[in-house]
Amino acid sequence: AKPIVAIVGRPNVGKSTLFNRIAGSRIAIVEDKPGVTRDRIYKDAVWLDKEFTLVDTGGIEFRDDKGSMSDLILQQARLAIEEAEVILFVVDARSGLTATDEEVARMLRNTKKPVILVANKVEDFTGNMDVYDFYRLGLGDPIMVSASHGLNVGDLLDEVVKHL
Ligand code: GDP
Ligand code: MG
């Protein structure tokens, strides 16, 4: 089996957009509003001759109403820690850091697996984005990308395949 690269993060940060961008397809549903129930989506991808299976974990955040939203996101992160070789933790540079981001980060800091912090929705690289907050997550330097515009996604993938 190919190594798994899992995309985790709270709803609406752009996980599915990033998935589609990397997988070169539009199989993950991109929603303006969070909360649509979908399954986990897997797609094989390749970068610099390295093959991996990409997972969009966003789909089941709202599968049932037993847990709170952040419980379900944390569950996704836990699953990613178990099954993935590399974890992409996506945050939204436009909305800034949230309490849920901090909870997910706390969990991800406890794994020895490589976690790449991805600050998405950066279309303007002139330094106006308030991404310095994200250093507080204790997961290293965020890689700034725009999933929807394809900006810096190649740099992100270079980083991913270093760990494969
Ligand atoms: P998910 O819930 O984390 O899977 O997020 P989606 O991929 O469904 O995207 C949520 C919203 O953010 C949609 O309206 C996307 O069009 C938007 N979005 C995703 N990536 C970007 C980006 O790089 N820049 C901007 N400006 N918007 C984005
Ligand atoms: Mg999604």
Radius of gyration: 14 Å
What would you call the structural class? alpha/beta
CATH fold annotation: Rossmann fold
The distinct ligands, each listed once, are: guanosine-5'-diphosphate, magnesium ion
> Treating each run of at least 4 consecutive H or I residues as one helix, how many helices?
4
Through-space gap between termini: 13 Å
Write down the domain tally: 1
Give the overall pLDDT as a whole number.
86
Counted beta strands: 6
Report on this model:
This protein is an alpha/beta fold. The protein has one domain: P-loop containing nucleotide triphosphate hydrolases (Rossmann fold), CATH 3.40.50.300. 27% of the residues lie in helices and 21% in strands. It contains 4 helices and 6 strands; from the N terminus they run βαββαβαββα. It has a 6-stranded mixed sheet with strand order 2-3-1-4-5-6, with helices on both faces. Strand 2 (41-47) and strand 3 (50-56) form a beta hairpin. The radius of gyration is 14 Å and the shape is globular. The protein starts with a strand and ends with a helix. Magnesium ion binds next to helix 1.
Summarize the structure.
Associates with the 50S ribosomal subunit. By secondary structure, the protein is an alpha/beta fold. The protein is built from four helices and six strands.
Labels describing this entry:
164 residues, alpha/beta, Rossmann fold, six-stranded mixed beta sheet, 4 helices, binds guanosine-5'-diphosphate, binds magnesium ion
